[in-house]
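Notebook entry, structure prediction.
Reason for the run: the old model in the group folder had no record of what sequence produced it. Starting over properly, with the input documented here first.
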Amino acid sequence: MSQFFQIHPDNPQARLIKQAADILRQGGLAVIPTDCAYALACRIGDKKATERMHRLRQLSPKHNFTLLCRDFSELATFAKVDNSQYRLLKAHTPGAFTFILAATREVPRLLMHPKKRTIGIRVPANPIAMDLLQEMGEPLMTTSLILPGEDLPLSDPYEIRERLEHQLDLVLDGGFCGFESTTVIDLTEDVPELLRQGVGDASAFL
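New structure, fully documented this time:
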């Protein structure tokens, strides 16, 4: 049975954020709000939690997970970023973008594309997600909460609890998050490539 924390979307309660971080540190699988939709989240490199995420979403081994980072200093630890990429990233974060970048050796194999050795990186603009990342002191491994056979992510925390309470350790209720996904931009080549149009305005990359 999962924990269910109702958290204020603009002024998250520090006590609940700390409890949420403790659950994640102990190997928990959580659903957290972001600036686009709810996401599944666990600690980087937690093999059991990662396997649970794979089963719940029925993911392909080639699935590109996203690292939710709090700032650029974390991003540079896990992704190779040159000066031109850095300027693009700085201009569009935090926000509704996921950037595909070449992974550094710090990224566990579980998280990256097995052939391309790439990783998705994102800096969210959601107070709950940012406070949780600050409390964790490290990025979180995430993927959109889209269940097998469905096209849209779950957006109602009460529905999430009802459908998944026996498969999760924690649901952070931050209110309705919407259905749209992030815009995904591949920055691994000289010319940026739009992989998915979502909430973020991709015109600057095209």
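Summary: The mean pLDDT is 89.
The old model has been moved to the deprecated folder.
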